[in-house]
Write a structure and sequence with these properties.
With about 350 residues, the chain is an alpha+beta fold. About 40% of the residues lie in helices and about 35% in strands. It has helices spanning about 10-15, 15-35, 40-70, 80-110, 115-145, 150-170, 190-195; strands at about 175, 180-185, 200, 210-215, 220-225, 230-240, 240-250, 255-265, 270-275, 280-285, 290-295, 300-310, 315-320, 320-325, 335-355.
């Protein structure tokens, strides 16, 4: 936004303090109305502040959704981001309904009786607990994980470069970690690993003819050659919250590539797919596809496709830029893998799965 200062990543941090301040002051006015005999003006002031606070909660929630979609979030932060968004939605519903109620009470001049004033105060006080949880998780994003903090972004860039350098020295094949995370890198034995360490829920390794591809620009990659025979293969332990990064080249492939997660079986899983210049976020349930979000996506040469599924939050990224975003009831913990359907060659340089729970 043009009016934002250069250091501000988005407008959300500049808005969130307004509803917090308005709602807290409104509660204090209600408290004062309980102890002051001539309290009618205090209740009216509290009602106006609650209504204004509720309106700012709406603005803060919408700006928060925009902020979450614009900031590159490390895998470890996704659970906190999801919890912040969930509590933000609860805060929106609570104070949206309570603000409308206070507007009605103000119109009807309700609240002259002390007992009724006490009930109104206690309901508002309960809302503060919801507001606190939202703010607490938001503060954790900033002060613990450095989300939106310019210096922290620079530090993460340096750490990411170091991670890539370390991974370049790693051995090929499937590497599993104690928390359920895993990583696959190509190498001389990568095709054998694909056959032995991946579970094939649809098709078989023979349907993709895995071979090692020597690419001078990107090092080694696994070449899968398909001829319209659909395949689906997964690896690792069942995970409840995941971030999946797949490094791909689809220049010589025509068809659909899916990153699948929370896989229950060949007919039930969540996915991010690429086909015909579009990214689709959705779910396969009992063999039927339901689409949650879809948008244009440009991918040429080597690129990274990222899928995030954590709780009721689902996101799809292309080269760390958010393309699709959806919400839904979570599936049980499941495995992670790829689903391919088309013809031509798919080159895979890396598959990295991070457990978020």
């Amino acid at each position: 936004m043009p009016f934002l200062p250069e250091w501000a990543p988005n407008v959300h941090p500049m808005i969130v303090h307004f509803p917090i301040a308005l709602l807290i002051v409104a509660l204090l006015f209600d408290l004062a109305a309980l102890v002051v005999k001539q309290h009618n003006w205090l209740q009216k002031s509290a009602a106006i502040l609650y209504i204004a606070g509720a309106l700012f909660v709406v603005v803060a929630f919408l700006s928060g959704r925009q902020a979450a979609d614009s900031v590159n979030v490390p895998a470890v932060v996704n659970p906190t981001l999801g919890e912040h968004a969930d509590w933000g939605l609860r805060t929106l519903w609570f104070f949206g309904i309570y603000g409308v109620a206070r507007l009605f009470f103000l119109w009807k001049n309700v609240g002259k009786k002390w007992v009724l004033s006490l009930v109104i105060f206690l309901i508002g006080a309960a809302g503060m607990a919801v507001l606190y949880e939202t703010a607490e998780h938001g503060a954790e994003l900033v002060f613990r994980h450095g989300i939106g903090v310019q210096a922290a972004e620079q530090t993460r860039t340096e750490l990411e470069q170091l991670r890539k350098e370390n991974e370049a020295l790693s051995t090929s094949g499937l590497q599993e970690f104690p928390n359920g995370s895993w990583k696959w890198l190509p190498g001389s034995g990568a095709a054998v690993v694909l056959k032995r360490q991946f579970t094939w829920l649809k098709g078989s390794p023979a349907d993709v003819n895995p071979t090692l591809n020597k690419d001078a620009a990107n090092g080694e990659a696994l070449r899968l050659t398909l001829s319209n025979q659909p395949v689906l293969f997964t690896a690792g332990k069942p995970l409840s919250g995941v971030q999946v990064d797949v490094r791909l080249n689809l220049d010589k492939f025509t068809g659909t590539v899916m990153v699948v997660h929370h896989v229950q079986d060949a007919a039930n899983f969540d996915f991010i797919s690429l086909k015909g210049g579009k990214m689709t976020l959705g779910r396969m349930e009992n063999g039927k596809v339901s689409v949650e979000d879809e948008d244009e996506a440009t991918y040429r040469g080597w690129f990274t496709l990222r899928a995030v599924g954590d709780g009721r939050h689902f996101r799809g990224y292309l080269n760390e830029k958010l393309v699709t975003h959806g919400h839904g009831n979570p599936l049980p913990a499941g495995t992670v893998g790829l689903s391919l359907n088309g013809s031509g060659q798919v080159l895979i340089e890396e598959i990295a799965v991070q457990s978020l729970r």
